[in-house]
Specification:
The chain has 242 residues and is mostly helical. The chain has helices at residues 9-27, 36-41, 43-52, 54-70, 76-112, 116-122, 124-136, 138-147, 153-162, 167-177, 179-198, 206-210, 216-235.
Length: 242
């Protein structure tokens, strides 16, 4: 009988790096600092720097999004809004899509190699409901999961890796499927940028945002995205257990 593969330090290094990065994020308390208040307080300096160093700023933003997606850090919404504020709706959406796709692909590849066994054991129960869909039609199902956020983003990345989805299909469906969400968040960020430029202390409450016409479309789009999982579950009945 062939020996089982041993978990050497080299094989476990990707897992150790991901765990260390995720733990460091919370250990340093970065979740308390990365918020809209920080963006508001530094919006003038950020815009000036982006205007003066556009390519470098875009590169830094994409790298930051790659790291956030690869380490599954809970800052994707804030980064998406910041992308719209810093680069506008169109280019903000583009950089979001590039960063999120590359970051998700890094986690996908790690899960297909050294991370596979420990992560499969850790999330086995949570990905079980996705396995049948991936095996039936990986392209359609993965595209659906990107368009309709039925499961957390990082969990879809892992499930796709564990069920044998190819890298090319994963990249294509991820890049296409996150376009609507990226556009909505970038639009919100672009609208918030207009608020920052209109006054020193703009009101960022939901009530205030809904009172501005330039927020109607992205807010409605965000609401529709939020409703998609509910609509999907209502229209597609679950198969009864055997």
């Amino acid at each position: 009988m062939a020996d089982k593969p041993r978990f050497t330090l080299t094989r476990l290094l990707p897992l150790l790096l991901l765990v260390a990065g995720f733990a460091a994020f919370f250990a340093l308390g970065l979740q308390h600092y990365l918020n809209l208040d920080l963006l508001q307080q530094n919006h003038v300096a950020l815009k000036q720097w982006v205007d003066a160093h556009l390519l470098e700023a875009a590169g830094v933003f994409v790298v930051a999004y790659i790291v956030a997606a690869a380490f599954s850090l809970p800052v994707a919404s804030l980064l998406s809004i910041a992308g719209g504020f810093l680069f506008g709706t169109v280019y903000g959406s583009l950089w979001i899509i590039i960063g999120a796709t590359i970051g998700a692909s890094i986690l996908f590849l790690a899960a297909k190699t050294a991370l596979g066994d420990p992560l499969r054991a850790r999330f086995a129960d949570r990905i079980k409901g996705m396995e049948e869909g991936f095996r039936a039609n990986a392209f359609s199902y993965l595209l659906l999961l990107r368009l309709v956020p039925l499961f957390p983003f990082f969990l879809v990345n892992l499930a796709a890796a564990f069920t044998g989805v190819s890298l090319g299909l994963f990249v294509l469906t991820t890049a296409v499927g996150i376009i609507p969400g990226a556009f909505v968040f970038a639009s919100i960020g672009n609208g918030i940028g207009a608020l920052f430029e209109a006054g020193a202390q703009p009101d960022l409450s939901l009530t205030a945002l809904l009172s501005r016409p330039d927020f109607y479309i992205p807010i409605i789009g965000f609401a529709l995205l939020s409703l998609l999982p509910i609509i999907y579950r209502a229209l597609v009945p679950r198969k009864s257990a055997p």
